[in-house]
Structure formats: C-alpha cells, structure tokens
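[stage:ingest] chain + small molecule (2-oxoglutaric acid)
[stage:ingest] validated
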Amino acid sequence: MGEISGALSKATNQLRYRRALRSLVRPSAADPRYHSAFGGLWTDRRDAGEEVDRRLDAGAISSEEAETLRHWITHGYVILERAVDPAVCDRLREDLERAFREGDQKLVMYLGGDRTPRRLDADTDIHHTRVLDVYVYYDSARQALFSQPIVRFLRSIFDERPLLFQSLTFASGSEQPMHQDSGFVVVSSPLKFAASWIALEDIQSGSGELAYIDGSHRLPEYLFSGKYKHWNAKRDGDAQHHEWHTRMHENADRMGLARRTFLGKQGDVLIWSADLAHGGSAVTDPSLTRNSLVGHYCPTNVEPFYFKLEPDRRATRLHGDGSFASQIYGV
Ligand SMILES: O=C(O)CCC(=O)C(=O)O
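[stage:predict] done
[stage:export] tokens:
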C-alpha cells in the first residue's frame, strides 16, 4: 500500500513538474514590445522610458522617482542610500549572532557553496554560512527587507505588491561566480522578479564585496537546452552552465559594459533586476566581515516555481505593503 501511494505521489509530482515547466519555455510568438521573448516587467519594455515620462506627466511619480526608474531601466540596478535604518541592521546582526552562539533549531543554513540544508546548532562559526529565509522568524529581517524605500521602489516596477519568497544572510564574502539570477531563481514569468542586497555594516574593500556588470540585464539571452532561461543540472548539464558563464563575460566585453563593486554603507541597498549579472568578488582580506542580507521578490500576481510543485508551501503572510512566503519553512 505504502509503495503504491509512494509511486502515485511520485507520478503526481512528475506531472506537476512537467505542467509547471510548460510556462517557462521560450514562447514561439514573442511580444515585440519587450527586449526579451520572455516579456518581463513594464520596465523591460522597449518604450519604458516613454512610460516613465507618461507617469511623471500624470503626476503618478515624482521627478526623483522618475530619475531612479530611468537609472533602473538603463543600468538594470538602483542603489537606495540609507534605505534601511542602521538600528534595524544592528538588531538583525545581534539576532543572528545570538542564533549562532546559542543555536536556533528553527533555522536552516547552508555551509559555503554546499546546498545541503543544516540546522543551526549552538557554537556554529557564523562565517561562510547562509541562513535561509530568516524573515519568517525574525522581525528585524522583516523590517529590513520590507523597509519603506525598498517596498516603494518594488511597487513602482511591479505595479503590484511585492511578494518576498527567499532570503540569504552572509557574514563574509560569498565569492559566488558572476551569474544572472534568472538562471537559478525560478518564477512563473522568468523575468518578473528583483533582488535586494542590504549592507548590514559598512562594506570594506577586500571583504568580497558584491560585484556586478552595469547594463548586463540587456546581454544577449542564453537559452538552456534551447528554450529555458533557468538552468537545470540534470537537464542541461555542467557544459551549458559553463558556456552561459563564458558568453556572459564575452558579450559584456564586446558591449563594453563596466564591472563595478558595491561598497555600501550600513543600511544602503542595491536592487538588481532578474538578468543583471552579479556575484561576490574575491576575498583579499579574510579578516574582514561582510554582513549582508539578500532578498528575492516577485509581484503578487507571479508565482515562485515551488508554489506549483509544493502546494502546501503556497501560503503567504501579509506584511505592511507586501507579503512573504517560504519554501523552507512555510508561513
Ligand atoms: O552577496 C554575494 O556575494 C552574492 C550574492 C548573490 O549572488 C545572490 O544572492 O544571488
């Protein structure tokens, strides 16, 4: 009996997975209004600059917001200075340091680049760890990730309330290779999401600061197995992953795009678009910390892919002008 129900649930999951994948295939008839065949946010439309003018003329946005939106459209990221109260950053760091000292069995973390989920035991070294979705349990993380300037900006590009569906903490540089999140972060409309990178302390040069390629959200698109924006190890293999990475750099060089690093002060936030290439630069001074928090958000009318695969993890909880969900813990 157990074997039959196990086989049935495996078959149901495979069916769910195949159905969900269909929405992620490159459409055969692309909407010519967008740069990408996958469409995207209104800011990804070819007439996005004119749309900013229209919103400004209609009084829907201020001239400062229009300037921020124009930067986002051209460069694929924005920097919001002091968007998070430094006191909130300190509170989150204290919460995390306590959790690492005393242990917090509710939380799940990764060690280095290893994707094996681990419980957070007492006396764990905080460095080279990533704690997942802390916002579910820590008010300080919710205050940071839903700070008013972040939510206001996300609402302006989403035309919708933001749904926070994943976060990662870093106490030291990740040295993560340059990548576009659309390759790994999967939502029902592949370009409809954005990420915030919050400096929880003043970031020092040599700490493995966040690196990114200005304007790379308009790089020629790489299609995994000829049709997907996201990489699947089993389906696409390491060779395609390597080719994606190589072409990203070749095309960025050919287009003359600038590599930049983010030396944010505590509370500064960099928001990147789904296709902006970014990663962690080399840690040249291992004595330096790099306390930071990354959050991934989509509009509430878009679904993280896991909603389709794990219906019991679809629940969302309201928080101010946004909401949140978590594949790891549920909410
Ligand atoms: O903070 C970093 O070093 C890189 C983070 C990153 O690439 C990501 O979260 O996608």
